Amino acid sequence: MEPRYDLCILGAGPAGLAAATRAHGLGKTVALVEPGPPGGVGVADGALSSKTLWHLAMDFARARRSDRGYDGSALTPSWPAITEQVRAACAEAWAQAERLLATLAAPSPRGGRVERFRGKGRFVARDVVEVAGAGGAAPRAIAADRFLVAVGSRPRPMPGVDLDGERLLTSDHIERIGDLPTSLAVIGAGVVGCEYATIFAGFGRTAVELFDRGARILPFEDTDVAAEIARGFARHGVRVHGSARLEELRADGDGVRLVVRLTPPGRPDDETVVEHRVERALLSIGRVPALDGLGLEHAGVAVERGAIACATPGHCRTSAPHVWAAGDVTADVMLANVAEQEGRHAVEDMFGLAPRPICYEAQSAIYFFRPEVAAVGLNQQLAAARGVRHRAAIVHLAALRRAIAMRATDGFVKLLADHDDRLIGLRVVAPQASSCIQGVALLIERGGTLADLDATLHPHPAITEGVQEAARVLLGTSRHPPDAFPGLIQIVDG
């Protein structure tokens, strides 16, 4: 008879690996089920691989400039060499994950042990998962007292579009193409679409056009953030088409044909239908939980609008008392750092450690555009939608000595506080934006205030000084009074 485990985890991405590590430390026996290499889209076709590409593209774009005292315009990219660097980065991450799993396979001081099962798992009973055997091997049944579903997500398909992985692509395909295309249409102006538009424009060999049904890119962000990124696209050769309804997208010969209905903002009578031909097209209209074939109904797990429903806010419990869910399979934001936190939290919850609820109000994110965008907490449109009265201070990079020294003054820092001076959100559009948000994330989680930021010694010169200066603008103690610097400093009431 197969042994019964304390916990069975479906998926070895950021959530699954974090959960397995925590359960091992607590002395639990764990079955970890994953059909592919460990790490999920946190490594390949996602977080690590695309960010490696972004860094390489930004390095190349900077080296190729001719306005910084040198002329690098003759540099040319080698796509095979670039993708080899991406593969090397992924291999390093996979090697680390394999080292972790080898360690977890040995008993912990408290008797914990993680056994790895290669294959796709599906519930066949309330407390039994069947793992499809690889290479024709017989399926194995795994019984456990508790389960964590952490199988991640996949690109959202579009009805009527036949993706061939060669010309019509998703994020699962685009990093495997044979060479840089001469032209690329990106369908969808969310985070993934804008990120790949930034990457391919950065290498200077691809004419990139970005199409979205919305009137502007990044509809979940404030208009000033979206406008700054759109201006960057214009500077770097990305053509953006808003209010664009896709009517046809298909492979045609050695390229792609797309037919788009364009509606100018506020002028519905001027609608036009245009046809484009490009070498390749990237379909990037979001991601959906990868729940197909999991047999969740056998475990009693409720699914709402394509995602696993969590029964308790701030926790990872599902409708089934013995099943938890973490990462992209739930209805909250799809971020690797959130998934990892949820995986740890789920294990502590299921084994009685009573962790405090996850503070999603302090979740942070980085968007790899040009310039980089970093976000934590609420933006203005979210605050308005929730009826949160607030004030926002905007400090443009041209007021910051580090940005002046970098010769990179496009962008801004925007800090939000409620009318009790409690911090509720931050947006940074700038080089090194990601370095600015962690302290504010901690302060938001702990109920920190503008005075806390004001009293903190920030390094100089650094982009992070813009966060402190924004706090001082709202406190009325800034060395950049809005009246003296109307083009650089603004206060907005919401």
CATH class category name of the largest domain: Alpha Beta
Return Rg in Å. Answer: 24 Å
Query: Number of helical segments?
Result: 12
The figure for the number of domains is 3
- N→C terminal distance: 63 Å
What is the second-level CATH architecture of the largest domain?
3-Layer(bba) Sandwich
Helical residues, percent: 25-40%
Number of strands: 25
CATH topology of the largest domain: FAD/NAD(P)-binding domain
> How much strand content do the residues show?
25-35%
Indicate the overall shape: globular
Largest sheet composition:
7 strands, mixed
- Regions with pLDDT < 50 over 5+ consecutive residues? none
On the 0-100 scale, what is the average pLDDT? 95
Structural class: alpha/beta
Please name the fourth-level CATH homologous superfamily of the largest domain: FAD/NAD(P)-binding domain
Q: What is the subunit organization of this protein?
A: single chain
Report on this model:
The chain has 494 residues and is an alpha/beta fold. The chain is globular and about 70 Å long. Strand 20 and strand 21 form a beta hairpin. The protein has twelve helices and 25 strands. Helix 1 (14-25) runs parallel beside helix 7 (336-350) and helix 2 (47-63) runs parallel beside helix 4 (191-202). The longest helix has 26 residues, at 79-104. 44% of the residues are buried. Strands 1, 2, 3, 4, 5, 6 and 19 form a seven-stranded mixed sheet that branches. Strands 20-21-24-23-22-25 form a six-stranded antiparallel sheet, with helices on both faces. The chain has three domains: 4-45 and 85-154 and 288-358, FAD/NAD(P)-binding domain; 168-285, FAD/NAD(P)-binding domain (3-Layer(bba) Sandwich), CATH 3.50.50.60; 361-493, FAD/NAD-linked reductase, C-terminal dimerisation domain (Enolase-like, domain 1, 2-Layer Sandwich), CATH 3.30.390.
